[in-house]
């Protein structure tokens, strides 16, 4: 709550307000939010205008979230700008708008809590990522690709591929080094095909 009595009702009068408040509860969305108890910093200017008090400035707060691509938790910092009019009782704005559209001054006080919930909710992404280019999880084994590295791939092939791979492996001069090709049936797979298959699937994941 901010008391605005000191502004009077003189259009043009202004006051800087710097506050650090503790989030009384979690503020945000399912996957990313300001945690309850986190410090929310407000750098605001309160300005008396003819219809009410205009609040402008920025809100800064720590964020805690869960990456929707790799499922790791992450922290970040949120900075969001605020521009809200709080209408005077009996002002034209008060009479021509609803409380949902324009906030009200009640007993010369500004209630910032709903404003904070609104601006934070609008600013946060519905599908937060730990990093903008998070590589996500391996579609085969679920390992985090950020840890596994770009060379991570699997040799588990579709049976239809296995037959082709066997054919390719037996063709002269096409055996990649270290493939361990032998004559026991269906156990061997050509690595070049495996790599091709693997890289094809990881390319689609990145997009
Ligand atoms: Zn991630
Ligand atoms: Zn894997």
UniProtKB/TrEMBL annotation:
Organism domain of life: Bacteria
Compositionally biased intervals (Polar residues): 198-207
Chain segments annotated as transmembrane: none
Annotated segments matching region Disordered: 169-207
InterPro entries, sorted: YceD
Cleaved signal peptide residues: none
PANTHER family the record matches: LARGE RIBOSOMAL RNA SUBUNIT ACCUMULATION PROTEIN YCED HOMOLOG 1, CHLOROPLASTIC
Protein name as catalogued: DUF177 domain-containing protein
Origin species: Nocardia stercoris
Organism placement in taxonomy: Bacteria, Bacillati, Actinomycetota, Actinomycetes, Mycobacteriales
